[in-house]
Amino acid sequence: MSVTVISEPPQAAPPAPAMRIRKPVEEWRVTGIVAPLVVVAVLLGGWEVTSQFVSPVLISSPQKVAVELVDLFRQGTATAALRISLRELYIGMAIGIAAGIVLGVLVGRYSLVDSVFAPFINAANATPLNVLIPLLIVWVGISAKARILFVVLISFFPVLLNTAGGLRNVSRGYVEVGRMMGLSERQLLVKVILPGSVPYIFAGVRLGVALGVIGMIVGEMEVSNVGLGYLLNFYGEGFETGKLIALVFVASLIGVVNVMIVRGIQLRWFRWIHAAR
């Protein structure tokens, strides 16, 4: 008599628990908020400690700078200067950026225009722009026009050079495909070349709006008795360090806000730039 042994089928092993992939610390949402605050706190703490051992003529404490800043705006001194400076800054930057993009497109796309203008562009870009201030005074006098023109010049070249470089670096494959599809020169420029050069254009605009603040301050220091630049000169010559540092922070804040506005425009209407990375 034979005995048949029926073996039970082997049981499947329990599924392994899913491994939770942890994001790197630098990608945590809280890191982008906490890390800058920690750095600011450390800098302010170091500044406060340093101010206790250094003459107030050389450096003022954070508390005194904050008080001076509030007083400048409460008295209207900073408000009036800021109104004049911002008007001249944004008029100059608008003209400089627009002119830089237009000429950059022409130089970057058409070799004839490039060969004609390249020597002058290179020479002008290599010239320190502050040496042109006496010439601007001769041309337009000590007026808002001279300061606006200086902002135009200092914001113009970064936009021009980056725009031209962007057009030259658009993939030839894209251009050839556009030609094979029968696109005209205008359609090729609008639908293929300009979209491909947008990252370069925005890089130039970010440089232009940052340098525009420098142009505003330098122009007002040299060709003005109004504006933030004039106040910086005035308080520096009077050794009023608290007010001087307060206005430096205001000027820095203007530059930061300008760059943030440009980045916001890029993220709002040109999201494909980041998606393509």
Strand content: under 5%
Helix fraction by DSSP (H/I, runs of at least 4): over 70%
State the CATH architecture of the domain at 62-169 and 197-275. Answer: Orthogonal Bundle
CATH class of the domain at 62-169 and 197-275: Mainly Alpha
Q: What is the CATH superfamily classification of the domain at 62-169 and 197-275?
A: MetI-like
What is the CATH topology descriptor of the domain at 62-169 and 197-275? MetI-like fold
Biggest beta-sheet profile: none
Helix-strand makeup class: mainly alpha
Distance between the ends: 76 Å
Order of helices and strands: HHHHHHHHHHH
What does this structure look like?
By secondary structure, the chain is mainly alpha-helical. The chain has a domain at 62-169 and 197-275: MetI-like (MetI-like fold), CATH 1.10.3720.10. It has 11 helices and no strands. It has helices at residues 31-51, 62-74, 77-109, 111-126, 133-140, 144-168, 172-180, 185-222, 227-237, 241-269, 272-275. Helix 3 (77-109) packs antiparallel against helix 8 and helix 6 runs antiparallel to helix 8 (185-222). The longest helix has 38 residues, at 185-222. The radius of gyration is 29 Å and the shape is flat. The model has no long low-confidence stretch (mean pLDDT 85).
Descriptive terms for the model:
MetI-like fold, flat, mainly alpha, 277 residues, single chain, 75% helix, 11 helices
